[in-house]
Amino acid sequence: MSLFDEAAKTWDLKPHRVETARKVGEAILSSVPVSKSWVALDFGAGTGLLTFYLSPYLSRIYALDNSKGMVEVLKEKVEKLRAENVEPVFGSYGEFYPEEPLDLIISSMSIHHVKKVDELFKWFSSILKEGGYVAVADLVKEDGTFHRDNTGVFHFGFDREEFDSYMTSAGIEPVEFKVVHSIERNGREYPIFLSVGRKV
Fold first, then answer.
1. Which of 108, 121, 113 lies closest to 174, judged by CA?
2. CATH superfamily ID and name for 2-185
3. Which of 74, 82, 87, 97 is 20 to 30 Å from 145 at the Cα level?
4. pLDDT tens across 75-91, in order?
């Protein structure tokens, strides 16, 4: 993940990344009954843009990323902001297991970098309490032109049927699928969806 290690220090300087995190955060808060008693996980947290947007509404949030550079920047921000309820975690899915099942799992623009999404959602389900929520944002199906370099990109976005099947096969009931934002690039718009599910 050296690409992300190198990008980490300047990651937050791109306004579209900050804006995407804000839009996704707003959409999560409008679609999920988030509570101050909840413990959450941000999967593929990067520098924590979405983590820090939602942390004031939660009891605790783990920020998981498999880029050392991203996690280092995250740790610096936690110290600077004195965000005591944010816990940066370096690692990949399947390696991290919280002490107690989670109330909420969030993710933004990370799932297309995961090769086996079906395995990821089964792991989500394994660390989520019954009735807990998954709220994941990513690209609507596109033609592979969103990234300048598709190294480490395993999916050119997703459609609703794909995401619903990932959730259902992991014991998560799809609740909502909606476009919440779009990113302008290459003279065109790339829509970003939010998919919400609840563990049954």
1. 121
2. Vaccinia Virus protein VP39 (3.40.50.150)
3. 74
4. 998 988 888 999 999 99
